[in-house]
Design goal:
The structure holds 3 protein chains of 3 kinds. By secondary structure, chain B is mostly helical. Chain B has a single domain, classed as Ferritin, core subunit, four-helix bundle (Ferritin), CATH 1.20.1260. Chain B contains 10 helices and no strands. The relative contact order of chain B is 0.15. Chain C has 12 helices and 2 strands. In chain C, strands 1-2 form a two-stranded antiparallel ribbon. Classes of the chains: A alpha+beta, B mainly alpha, C mainly alpha.
Chain lengths: 94, 257, 325
Amino acid sequence: MKNEWPLWEVFIRGQHGLSHRHVGSLHAPDAEMAIKNARDVYTRRNEGVSIWVVEANNIAASSPSDKGPLYEPSESKVYRHPTFFDIPDEVGAM
Amino acid sequence: MAATLTQDEALFQFLLRMGDNTLILGHRVSEWCGHAPVLEEDIALANTALDLIGQTQMWLGLAGEVQGAGKSADDLAFLRDVWDFRNVLLVEVPNADFGRTLMRQFLFDAWHSIQLGHLMKSSDPRIAAIAAKTSKEVAYHLERSADTVVGLGDGTEESHGFIQAALDYLWPYVGEMFTSDAVDAAMVDAGIAPDPASLRSDYDALVLRVLEDATLTVPDSRFAHKGGRTGAMHTEHLGHLLTQMQWLQRAYPGASW
Amino acid sequence: MYAQMVKSEASTDDPEKLAAFQARIDAGEKIEPKDWMPAGYRKTLIRQIGQHAHSEIVGQLPEGNWITRAPTLERKAILLAKVQDEAGHGLYLYCAAETLGVSRDELTEMLLDGRMKYSSIFNYPTLNWADMGAVGWLVDGAAILNQVPLQRTSFGPYSRAMIRVCKEESFHARQGFDAIRKMANGTPAQKKMAQDALNRLWFPALMMFGPSDADSVHSTQSMAWKIKMNTNDELRQKFVDQTVPQIEFLGLDLPDAGITWNEERGHYDYSDPDWDEFFDVIQGNGPCNTDRLAARNKAWQDGQWVRDGLLAHARKKAARKVAAE
């Protein structure tokens, strides 16, 4: 049996209430130790207030060859962006 | 000593006991840097050592103030000889292997966290403030060392053997943390610190639960080595530790670094 | 540098795919682990990132040598935090290499049995406390010059690891300069230590950049792939140019009589390091090679039962949880 500790991906929410962000990876024997290791490895400079860890094996990822079908269709939906619309200055902030 | 002990002298001794424990243990743990079993542990051990060094600066800084002889935390750390150190023997025994290091850490962390819990209510606000800050660090040390002790005890036959041997070796050094003397009596009278003996039952409850989870056998002897916290008789190891730690300050007196 | 003389692998892939790959790099796109990449790109990166990671880990040892002898509590804490960061950097880099399909344990074993190298600089001893200043100031200073441009390297995980490393690295150079500055302005004995450290570490620091690679095919390929951003000579010159004024500021003697300002080039001239010595160190004959590898091997072997024990416990715990459900 392979005896290397599994790889975990680490997500940390910083001080300012933003979403958890991927910060890196580490090895740990289980989830509890992964959280502790993440605390010791990735918050040495006061970087976070909340930690998520996910075993790397359990992450489902999109495939690079799907880039076209997945992301290009949204390029043509320019009307979704606020800059699409001209609002006269007199109207004020919107 | 007891008959002529003034309140400030007793307080000074008490602060040395707190600061020397963290100083010597921090030093021992820092010896692991670059040599731990896995990178994640290397980094975690360094965090523990850094906390302990920071705590030392607070305790010995206050000790210097109370002593009133113009000594800094560095003066106290680097310019005293073995007989003036007041740490318990437990923290000065060598690291040996990772099992002994983590067991020593756990046995100390358990006492440390209970002690700091009481000191947060100290009548001396300076002590209460240090305890409030450091107790958070120590709560994490305890969680981590307890988990590791359980993991190694309940791991493989080999890891169980290492950690059981560590417990057997270290158990006789546990009792010293709960011995009381005139310094402690003065602290109790002034409402500054609890009587060490009074912490034993909480300690036993905590430690025995973890050791049971770790499937370890607690030695049934209550024999306790002592002499560290009074300075009467340290182990041979402390002198060697100090020859390293104090070397630059001793070889180049008066230099500033 | 932390990755020295990394050989690039010739590519035998489909020329069309290669051209498309090169076009992505030229357009400044990042290559991510699941993207198609030439086998040579993958192999070269594993070698380079692995060597970089090993350098961080072995690099803990020369500075770790002084943690227990640091002269004040504050210096001890700073040095410990710094050496701990090196472990962190090694960890980030191993993780980046792992995205290429090699495990950390495999990389570690290749370091331990000598199949993979680490930077020549860490085979030199640290002999007095001023070395802690000089290592941070010179060695980390030199490393930063290489690592800052590598933040823009084409391989996404490597680039992200470098961004994290660079954030932490300027603390390292600064604490080193601060420590040696204190000594350069201290007692005559302290000043002597500072000068000794500078003299001993100057040429090994210059060697970190590696021999001139102006004509190297490996460098040309790596630069096209954007996994090497500058030539060795460019970075070395930059290092000399930024460091000489700092030496003068400290009031220390220049460690090389050949250092003179060249008005025409707009750079400092300097003496070439002894490249025979460099190749001796690379081949295992530096002052500390044997001891450094022995220390890493001991840590790994002594740690085996710990790694196995904690993993066995995690598996038992998971099995008990399943059984209870």
